[in-house]
Specification:
Length: 241
């Protein structure tokens, strides 16, 4: 397996409930991950800056600084770090807020440890696939550096979540192909992702807003009605077929 060439992933758990934090540390450690823990967002951010973990699992209801605030900070400063949010609040608005702030996934408490481990594996797998690559791509006026997982548009860095970058890279590597939503979900999110095709639409919308000259008239990320999307690697290019 390709991931054996990579060092064990480091996961930071930011959770103020000692019992939950200890349980996650034991279960993740048993799976072979290196695990760091922090009881609050401030300590969590210190560890993110010093240790640069591959993935952060964070609770929303943290004292002083909330998990949402930490999520936003990590995504802005460490675009390549995966983020999974845990919350006792399972309302749709909270899930949407977490994903909009850059989280890769969102789990409501109480949760199954097996389900959490599956989602951890999915996020790290996507990250590992691109971490081993070193290619650069040019998309319209944007430059994509796969190794650093950074995107620059007209010389200015564009902040993308890990999931947005993974989807962008998958599209870039499959130009001019009609890609169904289910195919995209399986290849980018993973077969063990518990979501709907609507998730793809939401992330495509964010990529259009960040990379299209006119998001209302997309030239790069084109909708194929009833099927999914086609990516054109240059504005104005006519699709084949």
């Amino acid at each position: 397996m390709s991931e054996t060439a990579l060092p064990p992933a480091t996961i930071l758990v930011v959770e103020d409930d000692p019992a939950i934090a200890m349980g996650l540390k034991k279960n993740l450690g048993f799976e072979g991950y290196g695990v760091l823990t922090a009881p609050d967002a401030e300590r969590g951010w210190e560890l993110v800056e010093r240790k640069r973990p591959d993935l952060v699992i964070l609770d929303v209801g943290l004292p002083r600084m909330s998990g949402f605030e930490l999520c936003k900070l990590v995504r802005a400063k460490c675009p390549g770090t995966g983020i999974i949010i845990l919350s006792a609040r399972g309302q749709e608005v909270d899930r949407i807020m977490g994903l909009d702030l850059g989280a890769d996934d969102y789990l409501s408490k109480p949760f199954s440890v097996r389900e959490l481990l599956a989602r951890v594996q999915a996020v790290l797998r996507r990250r590992g696939e691109t971490r081993q690559a070193s290619a650069r791509h040019r998309v319209g006026e944007a430059d994509i550096d796969v190794a650093s997982r950074r995107v620059r548009l007209k010389g200015k860095e564009v902040p993308l979540s890990s999931l947005e970058f993974d989807l962008l890279l998958y599209l870039v590597r499959n130009p001019d192909r009609v890609l169904g939503r289910d195919e995209i979900l399986n290849r980018v999110w993973g077969h063990d992702y518990f979501g709907t095709p609507r998730t793809v639409d939401n992330v495509i919308t964010k990529l259009r807003q960040k990379l299209e000259a006119d998001p209302e008239r997309p030239a790069l990320f084109q909708t194929v009605r009833g099927v999914g999307y086609r990516f054109l690697d240059a504005p104005g290019k006519k699709p084949r077929g």
